[in-house]
User: Fold this.
Amino acid sequence: MLFHLNKNNSRRIFIRTWSLPSNSVFVGLVGRPRYFEAVRWYARPESHPLQLSVAPRLASWNKADDPDQVRLRKYLDDAEVLLESSKVKGPRALRLDVGLSPERDLLNMADLDNYAYPLACRLKDPSLVSVWCTKGHSEQSFVRVAPAEEVLPPSAGWLVATTSASTSTRAYKEQIRAAVAGAAELPPGPVRLQLSFVVGPQRNWLNLWKQTIDALDPILGRTYPNRDWNPLDGRITELGLHLTVDPAAGIAVKVGIAAGQEGDTAAVQPIEELATQKMLRKNQISVEGRRSLVFRDDDSGYLDWLAAHPDGHVINIPRNHSATAARVHRADCRTINGQNPHKGAWTGPYIKVCAEQLADIQQWAADNVRGAIAPCGTCNPPWAS
Ligand SMILES: [Zn+2]
Assistant:
């Protein structure tokens, strides 16, 4: 469902109302909408796994000399030493596979966020943009890090929650819950959950994991019928957590929420492969809110897309999403095709946002850019700036 706001009487801004709880006031929405980076999704690392010699432990809030804490530290020391051998530069993805003994019920307790949290905290790695955790019956447990690889959103469908409340409050959870309230509870059995956070640069996103999962009882089910914030999160057997930092976010948090079950397609399609028309179509049919493709550091993907979509449209925009330096083009405009006259990359300092339909890049601009973007004077697309 969409509603329209008029801005400067000239441009319609589209905001998804289902991302906002109906009983709350979203500060700053009217008049000066908040613009967020789009949520990003990253592939689960499939690089060589490193076997832990000390079994993973859950987060513990006991005092430092408690045996629980001592065992936790021993495991974290082991994991940290193992991961130091992985020389991965740039944005990173971490994966922890927890092996549990055969008599343990995989769908009860052993919450994956409580396994992932202490390890991510220990690593204190600002380049960590994706954290994965799984559990299964095994005598062995593994860790690994790999370069973060951006992928298509999960194809099973996903929702976005946008919160304005302080994240340590009940109001934050209420806003998350309101966003998923209309979704159906997943049938009994294991659940694969991905959460993709867009946050301001000051925020420690690790502290959002538990708060957010606690609010997902509408889709996970409740542990006790009358008790709030106690979802059946033990049945999450695969958890993927992603981060996008957006200076414009302020105190607000945007969360993409994708929950599915065994058999649902995992997000493993590399973004670079989106260039083919077939995949683009699949993307357009199945994915809410992601009808525009953003090409960053991918000139060949961008040029392939142009060749496949001569009737499409392109926003050429600096990485910081500055509207004044951006232009909207027809895909066949000579100023954005062929050899870059400035000898640089097409998708370097300026990224390319591409869509077949003008309305879809309009939507992307409304979601991501502060201010109006002008049409290109060479190709004159039908764009009211
Ligand atoms: Zn043009």
Helices lie at 67-84, 112-123, 170-180, 209-214, 217-220, 277-286, 299-308, 358-368. The longest strand covers residues 128-137. Residues 67-84 form the longest helix (18 residues).
